[in-house]
């Protein structure tokens, strides 16, 4: 046996496998990038899961055992969407149950329901206070709000006449 070949145990595709590999040309699942750069619709939920794992000192393996959700599914919450919405929903709820995250919050974080809005928020005031927007951007947003307001007024007038 040459020194360039070794027997190694590596974790790939959800199972432990013993493989004979060439060390000079090794490319295992550990060398793949963790993220693809895209954030999926469940990214906020994935962040919450990571926070809970860190806070509790729990490993992903323990989460897999407690929730019954495969580790690849947990990882996919970060960067992609599971096409089967019903399956993604059930996985999110199973993970949320492990951490005691309320169902409503978990579904909001995972992108299934909209975050409730506060009717008392003044949009113009929020724009005015924003440090992230320059004056031109603020002016454009104010103009857009004016267009929406005029449209609502016309719609209301038509309803009142009709």
List the main descriptive attributes of the protein structure presented here.
434 Repressor (Amino-terminal Domain); single chain; 54% helix; 7 helices; disordered N terminus; 162 residues; 3 domains
What does this structure look like?
- This protein is mainly alpha-helical.
- It has 3 domains: 1-32, no CATH class; 43-109, 434 Repressor (Amino-terminal Domain), CATH 1.10.260.40; 123-161.
- It contains 7 helices and 2 strands; from the N terminus they run ββααααααα.
- The protein has a two-stranded antiparallel sheet with strand order 1-2.
- A hairpin with a 2-residue loop joins strand 1 and strand 2 (15-22).
- It is elongated, with a radius of gyration of 25 Å.
- The N and C termini lie far apart (89 Å).
- 11% of the residues are buried.
- Residues 1-36 have low confidence and may be disordered.
């Amino acid at each position: 046996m040459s020194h360039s070949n070794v027997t190694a145990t590596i974790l790939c595709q959800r199972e432990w496998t013993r493989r004979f590999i060439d060390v000079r040309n090794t490319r295992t699942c550990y060398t793949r990038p963790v993220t693809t750069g895209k954030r999926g619709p469940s990214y906020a939920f994935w962040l919450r899961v990571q926070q809970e794992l860190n806070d509790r000192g729990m490993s992903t393996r323990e989460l897999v055992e407690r929730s019954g959700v495969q580790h690849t599914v947990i990882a996919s919450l970060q960067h992609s969407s599971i096409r089967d919405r019903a399956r993604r929903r059930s996985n999110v709820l199973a993970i949320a149950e492990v951490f005691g995250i309320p169902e409503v919050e978990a579904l909001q974080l995972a992108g299934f329901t909209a975050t409730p809005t506060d009717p008392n928020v003044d949009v113009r005031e929020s724009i005015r206070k924003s440090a992230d927007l320059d004056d031109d951007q603020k002016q454009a947003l104010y103009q857009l709000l004016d267009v929406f307001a005029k449209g609502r007024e016309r719609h209301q007038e038509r309803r009142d006449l009709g």
